[in-house]
Amino acid sequence: MTINPTIPVLTAAESAAWDARARAAAGIPSRVLMESAGRGAAGVIAREFPNALDRGVLVVAGPGNNGGDGWVVARALRAAGVRVWGTDLPRERSPDCEANRTLALAEGVEWVESGERWPPAGVIVDALLGTGASDAPRGPLAEVARIVAAHGAPVAAIDGPTGLDLSTGIAHGPIRAALTVTFGGLRRGHLRAREWVGRVVVVEIGFPPAEPSWPHFVTDAWARSVLPGFTPAMHKGNRGRVLIVGGAVGMAGAAMHAARTAFACGAGLVKLALPETSLNAAQSNLPDALTVTTALGPGLEPDLAEALDWADAIVLGPGLGRGEQRSAFAHQVVARANAPIVLDADALHVPGLAAVGDAARVLTPHPGEFAAQFPGLAELARDDPFAAPSAALATLSAVSPVRRSAVLLKGVPTVIAGDATVRVVGTGNPALATGGSGDLLAGTIAAFLARGLAPVDAAALGAHVLGRAADLIVERRGVRATRPDDVAAAYPDVWEMLARPVAPTPPVLLTLDPPAIS
After folding, report:
1. What 3-state DSSP class applies to 118?
2. Does the reported pTM lie above 0.85?
3. How far apart are CA 111 and CA 105, in angstroms?
4. Which CATH code is given to the segment(s) 220-226+235-512?
5. CB neighbours (10 Å) of residue 368?
6. 3.40.630.30, 2.40.50.140, 3.40.50.10260, 3.90.76.10: which CATH number matches 9-211?
7. Whole-number pLDDT of residue 3
């Protein structure tokens, strides 16, 4: 039995505090942490660039502890028989950096002056700056960074490429990494600047347990552990009943997208509440779904009210439409709901809807929808998507009796807050940047809510599964040709993948590939 590793997502300040706690509270000497980091990074670099190592490795080190990590990388690769060159800036070094530099040069790492012509190495290790760097490189450091960027060899960055603010994701350049090796957890910038960091590998080096309040990254192992299973005696009534309300004239496809993924996630019964003009399209394209007719306002028809009571989870919004009548209708649906409800798409443009009623709920806004529902937090959502969902929940709790809620802010990455927990999802690619992808997500989350998952877990699992499906399908179809129906059709591949547990590979905790873009 394996226990899912916790991968925190950190700011630079949190990373520094974790490092200090490891030294002060856990009693781990900084040289031990540096040795573990450098040796772990060296192993990852050797695995990622086995052929390029024949041409040697150039380590470009800064004067701080990030540079010290780089000198340990140099020693470890040199001990394994790789030709290694090292260079740095003529500055005062931290004690640990100085000690490991001295060891590396004594053990056969070849010194190269920073102003000399650099050797044609197969890999460059960027160990110039650590997690705390935030500004654009200046002076001699900027010149060295430009030489690294222009060298032509793939760059393996320690913590992150020089010029990337690992708290905000602001990339000043000039270095783009093919590989980033970081320690203990991810940094926010790794997830907000995916095009700059390449493949990200998280290595365990002995840090104490992460703070529970820090955001946690969603992994396949976590998804596998919370995915609802089945029992031999199950029937359609206890596999989850999902009701989807929307599908106005010309927008029936939105509701059907949600229904397809609810079925694909194992829901036993899915019912569509649609206007009469949309029913033929639904029944001909999705005959497995039940239907109920609604005019989508001004009031709740008896059959719709009965369906709301019948459901184990409700989706409101895909293809709902907008206007005063639809807003009044949405308020009545949410006020009547007893089952957990997903508020998506047009429902998120109804002012104040998130605070209506007392049913558990998941909100799934993109930044524009977030601003419509929480206008006072629009700037925060743009500047700090890691904080915005929690702030939205705090706003809700001040005006609403709802206690079990989650807010999912779509983006790169997607951030979910709920139950004093923040989860971060990094799966997916630009194939999801199409109309209909949000409808797929809403149906996915509803299927998991209908099986009893807490809102924050249903939302995080739903976003992870949708992203995984998109990642799998673009391997065959590419980003450009992938449509929402293709992503929904890849859900069985996700279940097959999650059914195959992957053996742990210590000290590596996580490997995060860059998203496909072609």
Report:
1. coil
2. yes
3. 7
4. 3.40.1190.20
5. 12
6. 3.40.50.10260
7. 67
